[in-house]
Structure formats: structure tokens, C-alpha cells
Write a structure and sequence with these properties.
The complex is a heterodimer of chains A (121) and B (479). Helices cover 8% and strands 43% of the residues of chain A. With 121 residues, chain A is mostly beta strands. Chain A has one domain (4-112). Chain B is an all-alpha fold and 479 residues long. Chain B has 19 helices and two strands. In chain B, strands 1-2 form a two-stranded antiparallel sheet. In chain B, helix 5 (103-128) packs antiparallel against helix 10 (263-275), helix 7 (180-189) runs antiparallel to helix 9 (217-243) and helix 13 runs antiparallel to helix 18 (432-443). Chain B is globular. Classes of the chains: A mainly beta (121), B mainly alpha (479).
């Protein structure tokens, strides 16, 4: 499995089908912002985002957004604060801010959030 | 879902415009055309039967749902708020059209709504094409200065323009330590109270200007109330922010540079501000499209929405994560608010005219203010201005009498003007930009307080004591 840095450097993409997102790396999500939903509770009792880890990828179901492509507009992203698997979650310097967005044809772009985009951890 | 609803909303508005246009034309052909055309809802109440008191129920229902929806049934509310606002609005519109046969008030409200959303929408889109980067360390002093700057420019580009222009750089400056109180003070100062000095600042003052209040009257008679109020709120912010300043441990270096991109959009902002004055009541040669509830000004603003969006550099829109959703939310909620508040405004206008003789400047201040916090402050201002002038047997629709009123009874005009603008900061729905600033902040990952949280945790403890002081110093005991 590729590391997050490799994915970002190679501009590798993920996939999406409806409200299911597949990302080619393992991570722990700390915060996800989709539209104006701020999701920090990833337990099964909350609807927001449901995350599963498989050997080769991590999947997220966005329960309230049945068709992601319709919910995320042209200049918008789904923004996430994540920690790559194996890194120290308690060290804030390992927290990465990632933007993903459905580009069409099930291709999901993965980018690091730059300094121009406002995203508060 | 949203796009489908938006299409329905646009179609409904168009049908309503055409329908009301026909009815209005029929009304005019029947009625005596020598009557003075009035623009206030208060005066409509003289020509049409008052709505039944129970017709405020849709408005109260909508307010309660706006307040409780995001708290207790968030998913249902987020999916259906547009439908709820439209249904409640249509109930009230249906009552006006088919039960009390009052097309004028509906047409006038539609006129105000289109003006409102055209201004907010155009400022929102134009400011979305501007990118301001301030690479400086966030300090209480820098934030306070930014608030003061925002308060001043709110009088030049309006509270909406100033809010949309400054909220993103404000978030970026504070990105490492931002808390909800930062945004709330921003709403207090930049989105509301700052804009109390000129008719461009806030819509109620512009309505007063259209009625004949001098352009510089407000700044001459309100600056000594505006200045201490703005400084007091900034001072409170400064102490709160200083207490929340983390001990500096980071080695981040700042260039102290300010970068500005999107000059084309600045031109659009200028055009929007100029177009505010393109009104038949201000400039003689501007044609009126009466009875259609749209004018040249709105056509210019709506065109700017399209042109500004299409011509904005994609990299700036991407950096701002530009999305129409915040303005759509305002458009839906306020179509419901504007429609459902018609009965409330008409009843208030009636009551204020009945009891106008016994009202003091202090009572006008509290009545205008408390209602402006929950209703649209522009018609509230006009209703209480009308009532205050009625107390002295003056008519708000005669510009010479407005001039006479501002010269002879400035304290009344000051009380109504100050309260209409200041109290818009009390709730999220008190002024258009409040909701938009909240929405932009939430999209940046900041969890904002609920409707009641905003009201009881921030507005009541911070603003209310200041507003009481304003009342005691400037209006209490005055007649």
C-alpha cells in the first residue's frame, strides 16, 4: 500500500460510487467537513460518516449525501483532518489536511489543502 | 434536490409577478389614480383589511423551526428547510391573495425581497472573486483593527459587502486559534452595527434615504452613538481575545505582507454600490417598471451575479471554495421570512399608528430594536418612522415633511435608525449577512453556536447591556 505522501506526489486518485468513497491508504479520521456538516463523531450511533478499513483501501460512507457528485459543487471539496496509519496520532505535526472531491467518472481527486483554503482543525 | 427546489422557487416567483402584475393593473384601473402611491406596508393597512392575528402563526412557526431545526432535527431540517419556508410563505401569500384580497402588500413584499436578494447575491458573488491574503500573526490588536476597518467600510460598501470581503481573510488570519466568538464579534460589528452611518450601510437607512432623509443626516446625528458603541464592543472583544491568546510556542514566521487578487471583482463591487442609487425615487431619468416588482437596479445586480461569476479567475473561486449554497440558503429562508412576516408587520404598523401619540423616543428605540432583531429591519424601520412622523401629523410619503421631521425631531429619527441597525446583530436572522457569515464559517470547519446559543450566550450578555446604555444615555427621558 502506498503512503499518503506517495499518493499526493503522484496525484493518485481514489474512487467514489454514490455516497461511498474509497481511498487507497489507511488513516484515522479526526474531522471531516462536507458542505457545512462538521463531522467529528465517527461512531455508529451517528449518521454523518461511516468508515471501514480494508487491507488495500479505506472506505467512507457519507450517509446524508446519497449522491456526492450532486452535493459537492464545482469549487468545493470534502475536507478532512487525518492521521496516516502508523503515525503518532497524539503528535499534532502528523495531522494532515486533505481535500477530496468527485471529479466525474468515479474518479476522486486527493490533494493536500493549501494555505489559500480555509480549513480549521 | 436544491436545484429542483430553486427552479420551483423561480417559477413560483415568476408566476406571482405576472399574476400580481395583472391584478395590480386591474386594481389601478379601478381605483382613483390621483391617490398618492405609498410604499409602506403601514399605509397599505389603511386601504386593506388587517390580517387576522392568527396569521402570524406561519411566521412564528418558521422562526421556531429556524431556531430548533439545526438543534433537534438537523437532518430533516437540512433536507426540507427550503420546502418548509416555501410552504409557510405560500400559506400567507394565499391568505393575502384569496382571503383578504390584498395584492398590493404581496407585490410590495415581493419587490422588497427581489431587491434584498439581488443585492445580497451580487455582493456575495462579486466578493467571491476577491482573494485577500494577510500574512500576519493573529493578535487581539490586529483583530480589533480589522473590526474597526470593517465597521468603517461597511458604510461604503454595505454590511453585506464588508462581511463578504473580510470574513475569509479574517478566518485565515485566525486559522490557528479561531473560536466561535471571533465570528460572532465579526457579525456584531462588521455585519451589523458598523453600517449605521450611511444609507449604503444598511437597508433600513437606505429606505429612509429614498423617503427623503438627507444622505449625510445619519452620519451627522448618529456618529457619536456609533463610535462609542463600536469601540465598546471592540474593547470587550479585545479583552476576551487577549484572554484566549495561546502562549506563543510556535516558530512560524510571518512576512507581514498583504496580497490582493481580483481587481475585476472590485469593479463589480463598485458597480453594485453605484446601482443601489439607480432608483426612480433618487434619479429622475430612471424608468420605473411598476407594477412589476423589479427595476433597473435589480436587473443590473442580477446581471452582475452572472458576469462576475463567469469572469472570476477559477483559481480564486477555488481558493475561496466558492459555492452558491450560502446564498441559496438565505434566498430560501428569507423568501419564507418575507412572506410570513407580512401579517406581523401590518399589525405592528397598525398598533404603532394607534399608540404613536404616546410613544417616546425611548419606546421607539426599544420597539424598533426588539422587532428588528427578529423581523426584517427595513420594513420595521419604515413602519416606526411612519408612526413617529404620524405623532407630529407628518406623512412619511412626503419628502418635504420628512425633511421637516429630521430637522424638528431628530431624536425620533435617530432612535429608529440606530435601533433598526444595531439590533440586527441580536440574532442570526436579524440581518442578511449574519447567516452568510455563519455558513461560510461552518464550511471552514468552525462549529457555530445554535440560534439560541448565539442569542443567549453572546448577544444578550454582550450587546444588550450596551444597548441599554445607549438607551439610557441618548434616549431615556427624552420627548
Amino acid at each position: 500500500m502506498k503512503s499518503l505522501d506517495e499518493i499526493l506526489q503522484n496525484s493518485s486518485s481514489g474512487m467514489y460510487y454514490g455516497n461511498r468513497v474509497l481511498l487507497p491508504f489507511h488513516f484515522t479520521a479526526l474531522k471531516i467537513v462536507i458542505e457545512k456538516d462538521i463531522i467529528t463523531d465517527f461512531s455508529i450511533r451517528e449518521k454523518g460518516a461511516y468508515i471501514n478499513e480494508y487491507p488495500d483501501f479505506t472506505e467512507i460512507y457519507f450517509i446524508d449525501y446519497p449522491v456526492l457528485e450532486e452535493s459537492i459543487s464545482k469549487f468545493e471539496n470534502i475536507k478532512m483532518v487525518i492521521v496516516e496509519k502508523g503515525k503518532d496520532i497524539f503528535d499534532f505535526s502528523t495531522h494532515r489536511k486533505i481535500a477530496i472531491r468527485p471529479e466525474g467518472d468515479h474518479i476522486l481527486s486527493i490533494k493536500e489543502i493549501d494555505e489559500n483554503t480555509i480549513f480549521i482543525e | 434536490m436544491i436545484n429542483k427546489n430553486l427552479s420551483i422557487l423561480i417559477i413560483l416567483v415568476l408566476i406571482l409577478i405576472l399574476h400580481l402584475g395583472v391584478l395590480q393593473a386591474a386594481d389601478q384601473s379601478i381605483s382613483d389614480t390621483s391617490l398618492v402611491t405609498d410604499n409602506t406596508i403601514s399605509n397599505h393597512s389603511e386601504e386593506h383589511p388587517l390580517p387576522a392575528a392568527f396569521m402570524v402563526i406561519p411566521f412564528i412557526t418558521l422562526l421556531l423551526m429556524i431556531a430548533t431545526g439545526p438543534l433537534f432535527y438537523r437532518h430533516f431540517w437540512e433536507k426540507h428547510y427550503s420546502n418548509i419556508a416555501m410552504i409557510l410563505g405560500l400559506i400567507t401569500v394565499g391568505y393575502y391573495l384569496f382571503v383578504i384580497h390584498n395584492t398590493q402588500t404581496v407585490l410590495h413584499t415581493l419587490d422588497e425581497y427581489i431587491s434584498f436578494i439581488a443585492l445580497l447575491g451580487s455582493l456575495f458573488v462579486a466578493s467571491g472573486g476577491i482573494l485577500i491574503k494577510i500574512d500576519r500573526k493573529s493578535t487581539p490588536m490586529l483583530n480589533s483593527l480589522l473590526f474597526l476597518f470593517g465597521a468603517v467600510i461597511a458604510n461604503i460598501i454595505g454590511t453585506t459587502g464588508a462581511s463578504m470581503l473580510l470574513i475569509r481573510p479574517f478566518l485565515k488570519i485566525n486559522k490557528d486559534r479561531i473560536k466561535p466568538y471571533h465570528i460572532i464579534f465579526f457579525i456584531f460589528i462588521v455585519s451589523n452595527i458598523g453600517g449605521a452611518l450611511t444609507p449604503i450601510g444598511d437597508p433600513p437607512l437606505f429606505l429612509g434615504f429614498l423617503k427623503g432623509v438627507g444622505f449625510f443626516w445619519v452620519i451627522e446625528h448618529v456618529w457619536y452613538i456609533w463610535l462609542p458603541t463600536v469601540l465598546a464592543i471592540i474593547l470587550i472583544f479585545y479583552f476576551v481575545d487577549a484572554r484566549n491568546m495561546p502562549e506563543s510556542k510556535s516558530n512560524i514566521s510571518y512576512s507581514n505582507k498583504i496580497e490582493f487578487k481580483g481587481f475585476k471583482s472590485v469593479i463589480f463591487l463598485g458597480l453594485i454600490i453605484l446601482s443601489v442609487f439607480i432608483d426612480p425615487a433618487v434619479v429622475d431619468w430612471v424608468p420605473s417598471f411598476d407594477p412589476l416588482p423589479i427595476g433597473i437596479r435589480e436587473i443590473i445586480m442580477l446581471s452582475i451575479i452572472f458576469i462576475a461569476y463567469k469572469s472570476a479567475p477559477p483559481e480564486i473561486l477555488a481558493a475561496n471554495e466558492f459555492d452558491f449554497e450560502p446564498i441559496k440558503e438565505v434566498a430560501y429562508l428569507f423568501v419564507g421570512i418575507f412572506a410570513t412576516m407580512m401579517p406581523a408587520l401590518q399589525l405592528i404598523a397598525y398598533e404603532s399608528n394607534v399608540y404613536g401619540q404616546s410613544l417616546t423616543p425611548g419606546i421607539f428605540y426599544w420597539a424598533t430594536g426588539s422587532l428588528s432583531a427578529f423581523l426584517d429591519n427595513a420594513p420595521t424601520y419604515l413602519n416606526f418612522l411612519s408612526a413617529a412622523m404620524g405623532k407630529f401629523n407628518l406623512d412619511v410619503n412626503i419628502p418635504d415633511q420628512v425633511l421637516q421631521f429630521e430637522l424638528a425631531h431628530p431624536i425620533y429619527l435617530s432612535a429608529v435608525s440606530v435601533a433598526a441597525v444595531f439590533f440586527g446583530a441580536m440574532t442570526y436572522i436579524g440581518n442578511g449577512p449574519n447567516f452568510m457569515v455563519k455558513s461560510i464559517s461552518e464550511r471552514a470547519g468552525i462549529r457555530m453556536p445554535s440560534f439560541f446559543g448565539f442569542l443567549f450566550k453572546y448577544a444578550v450578555p454582550i450587546l444588550l447591556p450596551i444597548f441599554i446604555l445607549v438607551w439610557l444615555v441618548f434616549y431615556f427621558g427624552k420627548v
